Amino acid sequence: MIAQLPLGAEGPQLPQLGLGCMGMSEFYGETDDAQSLTVLDRAYELGVRMFDTADMYGNGHNEELLARFLKHGRPEAFVATKFGIRKAPGKYARTIDNSPDYIRQACDASLQRLGVERIDLYYVHRAESGRNIEDTMGVLADLVAAGKIARIGLSEVSVDTLRRAHAVHPVAAVQSEYSLTTRDMEVEVLPTCRELSIAFVAYSPLGRGLLSGAIDRETLSDDDFRRHTPRFAEDALEANTARLGTLTAIADQREATAAQVALAWALAKGVFAIPGTKRLTYLEQNIAAASLTLSDDDIARLDSAYAPGTFVGERYTAEGMKGVNA
Q1: Is 325 a residue whose pLDDT tops 90?
Q2: For 125, which DSSP code?
């Protein structure tokens, strides 16, 4: 049974464990729509309700894939999508666009691709530098009033941006990378979310697979974007994998996998988590982690062993860091 949390001050109660759908369309090597649809169906069957996508994942393909899943009668599915990153098909280079016209166009396009009348949670995927967040929130508030979106979210924003945005219209959720490999959110963003009753959604809670201990560069396909990220560079990956001793020791004690313990740690922090996978085996392992209860001692050991700065290398290239902490 997956525990539930409220999505913001007035939002619905949702299972704490969701599903990140990005890899079903690109970034992590070869994709298979039939396999992905099987994973989506099984996730819903096992109690997952939050399905996370974005317009830029596969340049619309990911939203269209979710639409195929939703057509089979998924009344409790909660769909979160995003706008704000523009890129050419098959390219990693991107621009950040929060212009009013683009927001409205992007929202209409996502509604059409998803085949829904209203988006449950619409995120600013990245905030555009030099553009007032108040203006962006004003456009989004109009979309709420028009019934096109139900709730507004922000991704990878600074505390200042978050507070300014929330003053214009309630922010239901903040989504940022958060795991044992990436804990900078604990300093300001997480406390601010708790202060303002804003849900926090952790993406990449398994450190893009790093925390499984099973990743090496030989297993990464040529079109896997991790090959080009500093944290997965050859020397960095070797150093990072060597740091997983405490995690694997606790996993052995708990008769669980390292990935399950890492995910249980994130859930124990009282946040939503949306690990991504396109494989049924990993999905079922992740859902089993929701039933894994770590002791206070386990959590303290993990907190100490993986203090911020423990892992080597930035999480993105400079291109990928565009708009982060904006």
Answers
A1: no
A2: S
- pLDDT, position 313: 87
Question: What are the C-alpha distances in Å from 177 to residues 93, 145, 155?
Answer: 20, 30, 9
Check: CB of residue 251 under 8 Å from CB of residue 257.
Answer: yes
The letter for the amino acid at 238 is: E
Q: Are 315 and 229 in contact (CB under 8 A)?
A: yes
Q: Rounded to whole angstroms, how far apart are CA atoms 37 and 285?
A: 18
Cβ count within 10 A of residue 317: 13
Tokens matching residue 117: 């009348």
Neighbours of 291 (CB within 10 A): 11
Task: Report whether pLDDT(31) > 70.
Answer: yes
**Collapsing DSSP states into helix, strand and coil, what is residue 324?**
coil
CB atoms near residue 19 (< 10 Å): 24
The helix/strand/coil state of 134 is helix
8 A C-beta contact, residue 54 and residue 22:
yes
For the record, the structure tokens of 286 come out as 């992740």
Residues with Cβ within 8 Å of 227's Cβ and at least 6 positions away in sequence, in order, are 217, 220
Catalytic residue among 57, 122, 123, 178: 57
Residue 14 Ramachandran class (φ > 0 left, ψ -120 to 50 alpha, else beta):
beta
pTM of the shown model: 0.95
Distance CA 60, CA 146 (A): 23
30-59: string of b/e by CB count within 10 Å (b at 16+)?
ebeeeebbbbbeebbebebbbbbbbbbbbb
Catalytic annotation on 178? Answer: no
Edge to edge, the sheet with strand 152-155 lists 19-20, 50-52, 78-83, 121-124, 152-155, 173-177, 199-203, 272-274
